[in-house]
Amino acid sequence: MGLFTRQVTLGARCVGWPEAEVVALNQARIAGLNEDGIRALVTRLESLRQERGGDTPLTVNTT
Description:
With 63 residues, this protein is mostly helical. The protein has one domain. The protein has helices spanning 19-30, 35-52; strands at residues 8-11, 14-16. Strands 1-2 form a two-stranded antiparallel sheet. The N and C termini lie far apart (37 Å). The model is unreliable at 59-63 (pLDDT under 50).
């Protein structure tokens, strides 16, 4: 695992990352977590994503 979670494919030429994962990683970095700690967090976040159903993008309701 790297220092960030895997991207999620949203379309043919579009990728993104779940907001909760970005927030968690940013908070960990601000808190001063070292690279080993960040990698452990990435592993946990990836596991949670798999439990939620993998890389299926979230549907956003704009109405």
